[in-house]
Amino acid sequence: MEHRKKTAIILGATGLTGSTLLQLLLEDSRYETIKLFSRKPVNISSDRIEEHLGDVLDLERFKPVFNADEVFCCIGTTKSKTPNRELYRKIDFGIPVETARMCKANGIDTFIVISAMGADPNSTFFYNKVKGEMEEAVLDIDVPKTYILQPSLISGQRKEKRVGEWMAKKLFKVFEVLFVGSLRKYRSVHPSEIAKCMLLLANREQESGRITSDEIKKMAKGD
To answer: Mind telling me which residue stretches traverse the membrane in this protein (predicted)?
Structure first.
């Protein structure tokens, strides 16, 4: 029996993890249409890609075409890229929360979003606090299948140059071999591992909740 072809939505398809996820979806025969919501095009030619360009800080304007089986939110920023705290919060809190609301309003049952290890609404560290508040707000919206991924440092080569981040990754690679036992969860995660985990979660039955960094790596390996 042939299953119905699915439609997926990606926010952040031009980023490191989002672009990797897009390639996986294009290679997956279960997906007929992949809708992309972003400020700039991905420059990939495929009749399965449907691009909607505009300001993703104003998702409400896309509501009539925001329909899919699954939504993947891969949008995020950094302190160095977005030093303005108000704008940072609009991106890392506002976009995922508004996306979850759109899922709920349009009857989309699966929402998968990338957060970060250390997310904590009670943290004194602004960036961890924002991630933690985002997680709580997203879970409160109660999309039936909501998965929040909490990767450690994300490895891989970004399109834009981030010198500080590049140096941190190099140092991290040197010392992370010492992360064994309970410390394994602090090992860096490759974008392909995150993308594989997101796709797996979208296509299996699992209780909603948070997926820790070590779980992401295990799921990506098929463990």
So the answer is: none
